[in-house]
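ARCHIVE CARD
CATEGORY: sequence design from structure
SOURCE FIELD: tokenized fold
FIELD CONTENT:
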């Protein structure tokens, strides 16, 4: 048997070991809390980064549209200028011929014609002829003046449009630079986020949080949906086009992690490619969502909705009406994705259904 002194020493050692373990547990819990707080801050930073990317990408898209419109306007002005140049040459030739004819005919004094021993009928014909020639010359001069005025106006507008085109090109270059800077900042944020998710359990927990976020958005969308007779819903008998061109990387119902499954499909597609509405409807959600990035939800009526996630930018706002096949967003990698693509869902009365039932292969 151990002596009382030995027992006391052993108890003291075990208490010391217990305190050390408790301190270690406390330190780990504190570190987990710090990591969790850091992770939430990084998620908030990622949201800002991706919203900035979306804003820059939207500006670039709008600038491209303006550039195309300005190019078309310049082309129209060039065509009209060419027409007017040809018309001016014809009018100048006509006027030149008329002046030459008047010169060859000589100058006629109406008083002398009246004093000549010519018949009144002859004099009347001559007066009518010269009045006609004079009016034709005046009309030709007026038409030529109008052509010259329009040419001057077109040349002025061409200069304005060219100045606008140059400004748009400079804006596009600056916007592209801003987009690159924002994308680089996002990459730094993603690396830091990855360091905070160094275990399978932490990643699963994040997936569950993201799933809950999506569920809240769907519930919000359901409340916003209205029974509009003009919206026909979706039909599995009439196959629709997929919202973007690309292969399906992850199928509907596939396991993500643990009990978390995919409620839609992941489509691999190049960044910046257009995302089109699969059917006509009304946008009921357009914002950044944790885990899914820039997300848009469209109400198609009769309880049907489609959801588009991981977009680079959204080109429509909540409340906007959209037509079937209309571009509503651009493919991106928002929501913390490392590869560009589109997350696409179809839901009926809030329940996720396989999009392949409605979209053709």
């Amino acid at each position: 048997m151990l002596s009382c002194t030995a027992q006391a020493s052993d108890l003291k050692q075990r208490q010391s070991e217990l305190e050390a373990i408790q301190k270690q547990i406390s330190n780990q819990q504190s570190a987990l809390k710090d990591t969790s707080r850091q992770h939430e801050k990084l998620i908030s930073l990622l949201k800002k980064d991706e919203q900035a990317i979306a804003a820059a990408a939207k500006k670039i898209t709008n600038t491209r549209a303006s550039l195309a419109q300005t190019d078309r306007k310049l082309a129209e002005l060039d065509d009209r200028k060419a027409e007017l140049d040809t018309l001016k040459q014809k009018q100048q030739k006509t006027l030149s011929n008329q002046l030459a004819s008047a010169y060859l005919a000589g100058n006629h004094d109406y008083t002398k014609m009246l004093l000549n021993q010519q018949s009144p009928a002859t004099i009347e014909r001559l007066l009518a002829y010269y009045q006609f020639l004079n009016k034709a010359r005046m009309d030709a001069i007026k038409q030529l003046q109008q052509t010259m005025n329009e040419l001057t106006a077109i040349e002025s507008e061409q200069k304005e449009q060219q100045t606008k085109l140059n400004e748009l090109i400079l804006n596009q270059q600056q916007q592209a630079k801003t987009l690159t800077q924002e994308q680089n900042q996002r990459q730094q944020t993603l690396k830091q986020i990855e360091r905070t998710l160094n275990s399978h359990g932490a990643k699963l927990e994040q997936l569950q949080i993201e799933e809950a976020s999506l569920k809240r958005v769907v519930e919000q969308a359901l409340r916003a949906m209205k029974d509009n007779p003009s919206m026909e819903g979706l039909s599995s008998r009439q196959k629709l086009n997929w919202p973007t061109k690309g292969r399906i990387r992850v199928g509907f119902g596939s396991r993500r992690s643990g009990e978390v499954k995919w409620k839609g499909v992941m489509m691999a597609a190049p960044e910046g490619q257009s995302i089109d509405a699969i059917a006509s409807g009304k946008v009921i959600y357009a914002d950044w969502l944790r885990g899914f990035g820039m997300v848009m939800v469209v109400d198609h009526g009769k309880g049907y909705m489609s959801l588009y996630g991981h977009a680079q930018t959204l080109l429509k706002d909540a409340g906007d009406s959209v037509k079937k096949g209309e571009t509503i967003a651009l493919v991106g990698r928002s929501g913390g994705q490392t590869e560009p693509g589109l997350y696409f869902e179809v839901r009926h009365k809030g329940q996720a259904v396989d999009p392949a039932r409605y979209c053709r292969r």
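CARD ANNOTATION: DSSP finds four helices and twelve strands in the chain. The first strand starts at residue 247 and ends at 250.
SHELF: design records, drawer C
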